[in-house]
Amino acid sequence: MLELLSQTIIHFIETTHYYGIFLLMALESALIPIPSEVTMPFSGYLVQQEKLSFWAVVFVGALANLIGSLLAYALGYYLEESILLKLIGKYGKLILLSEKEYLRALRWFRKYGQSVTFFSRLLPAVRTFISLPAGLAEMNIWKFSFYTFLGSFIWSGFLAWIGFYFGSNWNIIEPYFKKFHIVIVAVFIIFVLWYLNHKLPLLKKFLKPKE
Asked: Which of 11, 61, 130, 192 has the CA that lies 20 to 30 A from 109?
């Protein structure tokens, strides 16, 4: 099933280029289970083949993630939590989202604050679902957009660079993402905690609106 999905994504990008990248990355952030770990590395491979521009690929991927995330944000913003949980319980399997995963993202948001919207974009699992609790908490939409685009830009750039570096062997990363998923999450959790303790006051000062 996953192999078929990967082949479909590859063919779609080959025929549509930037439009395909935008659609796939937007759908991923809008809670549709389309792996960016396939979309962006293959796009990076096409960059190596001089069919696409690296920075254009990264920008399109990040912008698409923002658009899709805003749709998920709106879902959390306008729906009550009880209704949202019922929908996840009933239809969550279709988008590979369980109530447990949603509640975990919600706990992250409540525990670490709005900046987790940025850090979650660098995590293979949580990045797709964090928009729901952000909308539910009525996070400032401009801050949400800033954090989301910045984190998505870094994530898209990282994956595209891998595809560019490995060339035709771009898909070599796929088993490693699966095998070391827990390790990746743990490392970023540690980084989040360090950042919040040392850097968050400066970031808050930077984002604080002028009176």
From this structure: 61
Q: Is the pTM of this model over 0.85?
A: no
What token pair was written down for 191?
């980084």
Cα torsion for 84, 90, 94, 99, to the nearest 10°?
60
Residue 114 in 3-state DSSP?
coil
Q: Decide if 28 contacts 65 (C-beta within 8 A).
A: yes
Tokens found for residue 63? 């912008």
Taking the alpha carbons of 120, 122, 125, 129 in that order, is the dihedral positive or negative? Answer: positive
Q: What is the pLDDT of residues 161-170, one digit of tens each?
A: 988 888 766 6
Task: Please give the DSSP secondary-structure letter assigned to residue 124.
Answer: T
Distance CA 115, CA 195 (A): 10
- Nearest CA to 128 out of 91, 176, 95, 173 is that of 95
Domain that holds residue 94: 2-207
Give CA–CA dist 204/160, Å, rounded.
30
Query: What distance in Å separates the CA atoms of residue 68 and residue 189, rounded to the nearest whole number?
Result: 24
Give 69-92 pLDDT, tens digit per residue.
Answer: 999 898 878 876 666 667 666 655
Instruction: Pinpoint the alpha helices (H) of 137-180.
Output: 141-166, 173-179
Query: pLDDT digit string (tens) for 99-125?
Result: 666 666 667 666 666 777 787 787 766
